[in-house]
Every structure is written in structure tokens, then in C-alpha cells.
Input
Amino acid sequence: MFLRGNTKNPRVLIIGVFHGDEPQGELLINEYLLTKDLTNVLFVPRLNNCNTRVNQNGVDLNRNYPTKNWELGQRNEYFGGEFPASEEETRFIINTVEKYNPQIILSLHAPYKVVNYDGGSKCDLDIIERISQIMDYPIEKSIGYPTPGSFGTWAGIERDILTITLELEEDIDVKELKPKVFKVFELLEGI
Output
């Protein structure tokens, strides 16, 4: 876990690899950063250092946030931890968001091929629609199943930061995603 990009006044935070078995985000972020000198974007290329959905403690980092709907669940691939923010990675993101106060957060996931979002205002719908057009993915307000303790709830709903979850295709080579995802990064950099 580390930050790359502008740490002076970033307006956008982009996070890769919440789930260790979704490596596309890290690969795309690192390649993008080889070619860009960023002005207002801060990146976390890889949050989860394991190669499994859960971290080394068996916790789904996308269910470990101190939200009103967090709940102690069964130890499975969606386990939200023994208590909210029990994980070092979760505390790292909380501290990053509190320190830098981004206006927009984008997290890269797989495999649903949708643009999901939480929080923001009606004005933010333009950004979401533009990302949908670039990716040629539909916009889905709900991912379709309960997500207690999720990052989107914590940052988007409870803090009203536009929080976009870009669910990438996983059954194609990451190189094929690069042109479209780089356009999304450029769009957010221009905000």
C-alpha cells in the first residue's frame, strides 16, 4: 500500500486491487503512471497484497468500513472483519481520504462490466455518464446484492464523496482495457 501521484492537492483518488484476485487495476494504474505527470490525481495502485479476494486476515476489504450498516458476518469471502476498520488497509484508506479530502474516488474492480456509484450530486451524473460512454458499460446504481460495511457506503453515501466503482471485464487481456481506462483517468485528471 502506497500513494503515487499528486499529494499536494489531489481532487481525485483512484484505488486499485481492493480484492487481490482482481489485479487489473494495479496493472492499468502502473502503466498509466509511466506516461503521465499528474496534476490533481492520487493513486493507490494495489490495496490488497494477497492474490485472493480477501486479505491476509481473511477479510474482504470492501466490507470492513465503519458504516451504519456494518455487521459481523460469517467467515467467508465477504467477511467484513471482527470489527469495522479492523484492517490496516482499511485504516490506510480512511486516513488517506480524511487527509486529502478528494472530491471524486474511483475504485477499479472486476468482473461485472458496469459503472456503479454512490454519493455525489445530480451534477456528478455527467461524469458517471461520460465514464459509461467511454467504457461502453451500463450505469448501475446498485450492484444487486447487500454490501454491509462497503467502501461505497462509507465514502459515497455517508460522506457524500462521489465514489465510482468501475467493474472491468476480467475475461480479456488488460492491454485491451488500456485505451478506455486511460481515457477515464484522463477525464478525471481534467476535473
Summary: The first helix runs from residue 24 to 35. The longest strand covers residues 104-109. The chain has a mean pLDDT of 94.
